User: Which sequence fits this backbone?
């Protein structure tokens, strides 16, 4: 689980995507820092990578609003979808 979460957070840091939290846009570096903080503070809320995605990485713990991810010229997707796709790539050996 730890390596998978490390991969997800580094995927954020290495991306050129914009992450939208509570209506505010954040670059990849700030988004990965925020996820690192949430990872440490929220350890008791997840036991699996899927739970980390669902409970920690996909929405605001304050407002309950979903995080969005916008890459390139495409539209935004939910962070849950973005992280789930990245996890599937990792597990398929596509890291």
Assistant:
């Amino acid at each position: 689980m730890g390596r998978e979460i490390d991969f997800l957070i580094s995927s954020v840091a290495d991306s050129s995507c914009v992450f939208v939290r509570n209506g505010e846009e954040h670059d990849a570096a700030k988004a990965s820092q925020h996820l690192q903080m949430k990872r440490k503070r929220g350890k008791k809320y997840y036991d699996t990578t899927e739970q980390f995605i669902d409970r920690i990485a996909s929405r605001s713990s304050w407002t309950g609003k979903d995080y969005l991810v916008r890459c390139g010229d495409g539209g935004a997707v939910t962070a849950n979808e973005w992280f789930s796709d990245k996890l599937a790539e990792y597990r398929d050996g596509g890291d």
